[in-house]
Write a structure and sequence with these properties.
The chain has 234 residues and is of the alpha/beta class. The protein is 44% helix and 18% strand.
Amino acid sequence: MNPALVCIPTYNERDNLQPITRAVLEADPRVDILVVDDNSPDGTGQLADELAAKEPRIRVLHRAKKEGLGRAYLHAFRQALDWGYTYILEMDADFSHDPRHLPELLDTAQGGADLVLGSRYVPGGGTVNWGVGRKIISRGGSLYARTILGVGIRDLTGGFKCFHRRVLESIDLEAVRSTGYAFQIELTYRALKQGFTVCEVPIVFEDRRVGQSKMSRKIFLEALTMVWKLRLSV
């Protein structure tokens, strides 16, 4: 078993799954993969099982239904802790998070950081194939959350992360309520409130190559309201 586990939640990602798992395994020999499939109707879960049968570094977690990004990650985190992994990473299945950044995230964590964030908004980071409107919404959302929560993290909404297990063991995962992209804000904020060291390393985020975005109005509104709940309760 390698020291790090990359958790990749999937829902209808059959076309992306084989290329992304291959790219992750090639990017860093220190990582294993956990595919977390929410009963995808397109057969993503079945393909994941086929890949795992051929590759010992791939594991699969099947969930009964789609419950949101946050629920899938929490399930994966608990499993990773039970298996004994020291570093637990999260990333998307659609290549918007480039596997080439994995070594730097893991190197920074092994260098002593408790939580490492792949950041679009620090020097060297950026986005590809985004329109002006999406850039404004993303940067504005990060600024909104950063201002209300009173933290200095530049990219609070990003989902390319590496946790040391001590962070996930210290956070009350049962108390995490966010299900969409607000989940990313909540986990980072809870880590900061626990006194953990959070570092940002630059990444270039590229819009998905295949398939449809999971972003929705409901997910966006959850993120807007969740920051106030966090500020008042955590």
